Amino acid sequence: FSLVVMLCISVGLFNGSTDAFVAFGLYCMPLVVWVSVYSSYRPVRYFDIFSRSLLMSGIIGYLALLQYFFSPTLFGLIAIDSNQMKWADGKAFLEYATFFRATSTLGSPQVLALFCGLTFILSVRYKKLLKPKVFYFSALGLAIGGALSGGKSFFLIVILFFLLTRFRDFFSRIRTFLVGGAILLIIIFAGQM
Questions:
Q1: What is the pLDDT of residues 160-171, one digit of tens each?
Q2: Most CB within 10 Å of its CB: which of 52, 74, 173, 185?
Q3: Nearest-angstrom CA–CA distance, 145 and 63
């Protein structure tokens, strides 16, 4: 019911144009897809959903590779509505490579970077539970897609994940020291009030 109300409001705001239907579809489709995916599982097992969608996530990363090196519009799959796409479409790779950031099918380099980064660290975290071929195929695609998106968030997420997992004992000692120092400061300042 709420989706129909949102559609009516968006049609009213856009004066009945077809842009309202397109915008409604773009913003509601992920919600509808994930509601239908979650409703098919009784009870919801998030790891099963993740492991079954990991292959598709890797393909999204490989589409970024195709987009960056061969076709900025993914051979017509992505509409040319941004200035970046208009400028890069029809140009040789060397002309647009230094300024172009891959978006794959997600529409934004920042969204692609976050998607690839978070999915990559989840797949590395659950590597032992995943099928090896699916893991390596997807991890490589996600790493390539995240790097070609040019997003700092991808690199920050991956670097922090590896630092926190490799130096877990070191960070736990620092955390213990900081918590102890904070408690000491609270005691000192509480006594002065």
A1: 898 888 887 777
A2: 74
A3: 8
What is the distance between the alpha carbons of residues 153 and 1, in angstroms, rounded to a whole number? 36
On whether the CB atoms of residues 122 and 46 are closer than 8 A, the answer is no
Please indicate whether residue 30 or residue 51 has the higher confidence score (pLDDT): 51
pLDDT at 2 exceeding the cut of 70:
no
d(CA 188, CA 186): 5
Q: Which of 147, 145, 151 is nearest to 66 (CA)?
A: 145
Distance of CA 137 to the CA centre of its chain: 17
Tokens representing 32 are 């509808």
Question: For residues 178 and 156, what is the distance between their CA atoms, to the nearest angstrom?
Answer: 23
Phi, psi of 177 (to 5 degrees): -65, -45
Region of 150 on the Ramachandran plot (φ > 0 left; ψ -120 to 50 alpha; else beta): left
pLDDT in tens, 77-125: 776 666 666 666 666 766 766 667 777 777 778 888 888 898 999 899 9
pLDDT for 183 = 79
